[in-house]
Specification:
Shape: globular
Number of strands: 5
Number of helices: 8
Order of helices and strands: EHEHHHEHEHHEH
Largest sheet: 5 strands, parallel
Structural class: alpha/beta
Oligomer: single chain
């Protein structure tokens, strides 16, 4: 399936750095940035954790579907996604059509350390957040891999280094 879209699509687990990279890419490129979590929060007037709490995960995934369908990738843009967006097959297809999919990776310890600084992660509010994270990761990793055009390990890199790396790689011609 060919990529029709002009967007740079950021995928990856929570804590991989998608939001900060999205903002940096927006600054560096001048392209508009769309964040599916922000779109959904704005639509319902609730934070993402609150939507999960009140309406549940399926409701949220439906809202993600709608957000993805609203995105127009005929002009260059930056698209930031939530960590679980890849769980639905239709979402993976839509993401691939939007443009170049950049998968931000980080090792488990790094992700957990980053996530421990933020308490607002609805899926990690369990008795054993580390075990929960491992389960979520195991389920999602093959799905991120499946649609990634470019993989960047952010574990040891600064935000600026990640940004430079992505822009260099996207500017370079793609070899099949």
């Amino acid at each position: 399936m060919g990529h029709g879209g002009q967007a740079i699509v950021l995928i990856g687990f929570m804590g991989a750095g998608k939001s900060s990279l999205g903002r940096r890419l927006e600054k560096s490129t001048g392209f508009p940035r769309f964040d599916t979590d922000e779109m959904i929060a704005a639509k319902f007037g609730l934070s993402v954790p609150r939507i999960f709490e009140v309406h549940g995960e399926d409701f949220f995934r439906d809202a993600e579907s709608e957000a993805l369908r609203q995105l127009d990738s005929s002009a260059p843009s930056i698209i930031v996604t939530g960590g679980g967006i890849v769980l639905r097959t239709t979402h993976r297809e839509l993401l691939r059509q939007l443009g170049t999919v950049v998968y931000l990776q980080a090792d488990e310890a790094t992700l957990f350390e980053r996530l421990s600084r933020k308490a607002s992660r609805p899926l990690l509010r369990t008795d054993d957040p580390r075990a929960t994270m491992k389960q979520l990761l195991e389920r999602r990793l093959p799905l991120y891999e499946e649609i990634a055009d470019l993989r960047v390990d952010t574990s040891q890199l600064s935000h600026d280094e990640v940004c430079d790396l992505v822009l260099q790689n996207i500017a370079a011609p793609k070899h099949d």
